[in-house]
Amino acid sequence: MLLTDLVILIFMSKQRTMSTYPEQSKSFLTSYTTMIQGVIPNLFVVACLAFLLMIVALIVKLLKSFDEEDSSPASGQVRVATETNRLLPKEVVQFSYGTCEGEDDDEESGKCSSNASGDLYDGKICVICYDQQRNCFFIPCGHCATCHICAKRIVELESKTCPVCRRYIHKVRKLFIP
């Protein structure tokens, strides 16, 4: 009897533990799955939003770097022409070659002092010899580019073409400049 009582006692204890364990595990699993069902989708949404935020931040950073490159061409990089670039510079730089710069009183009287480089830019010196003043023009093109000596040499000895437009010269007329 001792042996049978022991077997019954063990069997009953196993049934008791088996009956109480699934109830506890069911309640624990139910609460755990409920928690997982609520938290996991929220974590997924938060992770997706963080990823999208990082992509937007990278795009903004990239756009700022392109904007800084366009605004500072002095950094040694070649500026690429696009439709959005200005056609004209922001500041207009005026060049005045061969004019009376800063001599306002002489400008009115017509007595501007000029140097050789100023005469070149004003179109007063012969383009052939760079020695004398231009004082003739070619017919039919009408260009006034040489002195009378160089013009005669072109018509009589050389190719008889205008040094500016390469058109055939029929005649040379002398200008009398006061």
UniProtKB/TrEMBL annotation:
Query: What residues does the RING-type domain cover?
Result: 126-166
Give the Gene3D superfamilies listed for this entry. Answer: Zinc/RING finger domain, C3HC4 (zinc finger) (3.30.40.10)
The reply on keyword tRNA processing is no
What would you give as a GO molecular function for this chain, any one? zinc ion binding
Highest taxon of the lineage: Eukaryota
The biological processes this protein is annotated with in GO are: protein ubiquitination
Q: Which residues form a coiled coil?
A: none
TM ranges are 43-63
Pfam annotation, one family: zf-C3HC4_3
Protein keywords: Membrane, Metal-binding, Transmembrane, Transmembrane helix, Zinc, Zinc-finger
Q: Does the keyword Transmembrane apply?
A: yes
Query: Do you know which PANTHER family this protein is assigned to?
Result: DEATH-ASSOCIATED INHIBITOR OF APOPTOSIS 1-LIKE (PTHR46858:SF15), OS05G0521000 PROTEIN (PTHR46858)
Annotated protein name in UniProt: OLC1v1011543C10
Native organism is Oldenlandia corymbosa var. corymbosa
